[in-house]
From TrEMBL:
Protein's name according to its UniProt entry: Triosephosphate isomerase
Organism: Halarsenatibacter silvermanii
Source lineage: Bacteria, Bacillati, Bacillota, Clostridia, Halanaerobiales
Family: Belongs to the triosephosphate isomerase family.
InterPro entries tied to this protein: Aldolase_TIM, TIM_sf, TrioseP_Isoase_bac/euk, Triosephosphate_isomerase, Triosephosphate_isomerase_AS
Entry binding sites for substrate: N9, W10, K11, G173, S212, G233, G234
Pfam families: TIM
Amino acid sequence: MRRPFIAGNWKMNKTPSEARELVGELKDMVSDVDDVDMAVCPTFVAVPAVVDELEDSDIMVGAQNMYWKDSGSFTGEVSPQMLTDLDLEHVIIGHSERREYFHETDREVNMKVRKALEKGLKPIVCVGESLEEREEGRTEEKVAFQVWSALSGVADEDIPEVTIAYEPLWAIGTGESASPEEAASTIDSIRDIVEDISPGAEEKIRIQYGGSVKPHNIEDFISRTTIDGALVGGASLTAESFAGVIKKCQ
Ligand code: PEP
């Protein structure tokens, strides 16, 4: 049985003090939740304040990105050891905004996934089709390629440590979400790919839906057995709405 996993991606929002305030409120609101895995992914600079504030909470902390090298002359980058040193457990890899605005390729996503796992971080790998690809009927082909690329060279025993976030690009931050049927069908196709890569892992790997998830629609997604939770953007930016999403998954 896979535990539901709700992760909040704050993107480039919240100063360190605002971040501390948000999780200070959130941890009280979800203190009675014990059957859902919860994580927030602040900006790098807000991570120490959030880790400190959540010391006595079950809410985990993740990063939104990392580099695939251990250290060195890579101005502006952050290594996986810097994240594990702060006790982070998760790292989002290959978010569509990184792919689009920072030209992150499938090869780079794969290198980051492998390095994260090597260092004991659990990647949340984002995949999803554009509106154009969807209209051309190429959704499954696109996400299959992204999943194959991301998991290439990953050891069988590490695959269940990965979470895949299926996020149709046209549903991110638009207020328009995929229908639960569409999301479940694409996620089933992702499970088939995972089975081809590592038979049996499709039962263990967690696959989230992401794209305009809110307290009022999360139940439509989480009620599908193949959907294990959500990667939440906008609705993770207030304690009330993020707690609302989490509580509906109990
Ligand atoms: C995201 O950025 O991963 C996301 C799903 O955003 P939103 O929930 O705002 O659509």
